[in-house]
Amino acid sequence: MTIFENLAAVRAEIARAAATAQRSVNSITLLAVSKTQPVKAIEQALAAGQRVFGENRVQEAARKFPALRQKYPDLAVHLIGPLQTNKVKQAVAVFDAIHSVDRPKLADALGHEMRAQNRRLPCFIEVNIGQEPQKAGISPHDVDAFVLACRERFGIPVAGLMCIPPANADPLPYFKQMAALAKRCGVSCLSMGMSSDYAVAIAAGASHIRVGTAIFGERSKPSSAETS
Ligand SMILES: *Cc1c(COP(=O)(O)O)cnc(C)c1O
After folding, report:
1. How far apart are the CA of 31 and the centre of ligand 1, in A?
2. What are the C-alpha distances in Å from 185 to residues 27, 36, 102, 173?
3. 120-174 confidence digits (pLDDT tens)
4. Less Cβ crowding at N or C end of the chain, within 10 Å?
5. Residues lining ligand 1, judged by CB closer than 6 Å?
6. SS3 220
7. Whose CA is nearest to atom 12 of ligand 1?
8. What's the CA-to-centroid distance between 153 and ligand 1, angstroms?
9. CA atoms 124, 125, 128, 130: torsion sign
């Protein structure tokens, strides 16, 4: 299967899931997760009409996307991976949205840097919805207070919430909890759903789905030298 065919299949599945959930397809943004993929693969997705991409490393995105933006000014790149505070400056310059705001120190740094660069990037608060000790994210119990602090104290635009549910578990109950949390916090966007479960996420109300493998095929292992 080509990237063109894969994208067509993913779009058809999004349309099917949206129709089943009685939602408009326009309420769902597909992020093509291009981490570890070469520029050539991204160009194929662009040629197929895809415009929003997800990357999990700042330096990798900084290397791949500026040239592509010349040709496709409406292209958008969202950071979906962990962000270290020492890379916030570059991240604010390179990305159009941040899906991994997971701690006060990072929110504070993002607020300062967005003001310094006069750029306002929509931010998603990463929620550790499965309350897994090894995983990043704000505890579901602390989300309301953190959203408030992001808005009022750190001054960052909170677009919504993001999660990666526990592996090898039915994701639906977690996605539903996320939808309830978003409603409670008064945020409209929900970044959830990957190649294996994006249709389930759409049923639960996802506004942003992050799909890599189903579009680009299996990833080669990222080099361990390159960190976010
Ligand atoms: C890699 C990644 C994805 C995409 O995963 P696939 O299973 O390849 O669709 C989505 N979200 C995050 C945070 C990722 O790191």
Report:
1. 10
2. 19, 34, 16, 18
3. 999 999 999 999 999 999 999 999 999 999 999 999 999 999 999 999 999 999 9
4. N
5. 33, 35, 56, 80-81, 164, 194-195, 210-214
6. coil
7. 80
8. 31
9. negative
